[in-house]
Each structure stands twice: as C-alpha cells, then as structure tokens.
Amino acid sequence: MAASTATKLSARERLLEAADDLFYREGVQTVGIDRVIAHAGVAKASLYNTFGSKEGLVCAYLEQRFDRVKNRISRTLTRFRTPREQILGVFDALGEAFTDPGYNGCAFVRASAETAEDSAIRHAAESYRSWVRELFAELAAACGYAEPDELARQLLLLYDGAGQAARMDRDPAAATTARGAAAALLEAAPLAR
How far, in Å, CA of 8 to CA of 31, rounded? Predict the structure, then answer.
C-alpha cells in the first residue's frame, strides 16, 4: 500500500471547500456558520480570524466561484479565433457547467436573492455579472457591431436564461439552445458603418 502524499489543506481552504459545498447545494442563508465550521473541521475562531464574518466567507466563496467561471470561459475561448466565435464560445463554456451532475444554478443569482440590496454579497455577485457583460461588450466591439453594449445586454439575457433553464428544467442542452439564439442575434445585429 502506497503512503498518502496528499498535503493537508489550510483552515482557509477547508472553510472555502465546505462553504462551496454547503452554500451551493443549500443556499447561503439556509446554512448556518456552525454547519460550515463542522463540515470544515476547524475551530470557530478560524472562520472569524480568516474571514471576519459569515458575510466575509460568503464573499470569498463567491470570489472563488467567479475565478473558476473566468478560468473556464477563458480556457474555452482559446479554442476560437474570431471574436464572433468567442462570443458563441461563452455559451460552450456555460454548457460545460450544465453537464456537471451537481449543477444547481447560478451561485451568484442564488446568493444575491438571499441577501439585502446593499450587502457585500450582492456586490460580489454584481462583479461577476459586470465581468460577463463587459466580456460580451468587448467581443461585440471587436466584431464591429454598431451597439456593442446593447448587444452585450441581450447576450447576457440569453446567458442568464440558459442558466435558469438548465437549473429549473434540468436541461443541460439549454446552453446549446442559447448559443443558437445568440448566433441569430449576431446575424441580425447591425454593424458599425
């Protein structure tokens, strides 16, 4: 039998892993801090020393998810040459998430729906949405569309709708459907003169 060479995770890493599992499956308000601490196997002081509060932990959990989404999309976009192909490739990256058996909807939508309007959690979710919208706008501008910001808003609606359909209808093909709608939208959108 080979000896285990796995390195022990830090208290921060264990808390984030527990938060990711519990918050994503059950919701940020449903899961109490004591459950996260027990799941992580750390002392309560570790949470407060590392994150300051439950809200701090939720924000760190969302930031970690945001990094994963950015990495997945960025990795996927390297397969495409043109900005138009990359816009459609965003939906391919989204589809990868939908095929995960544990897919439970958009973590940012779910967390922001459970928090106050002015919370740091809501701001973390808004940062994610701004990034996706800006990515679409940059790619649309690179394509030469007349109104890249408006087109980005429309593409974001397709992106959001695909996520909701994948969750509510348990339809992993929702990203493919949204990709088709995005292609039609790109065909119809006017180019700058």
Answer: 25
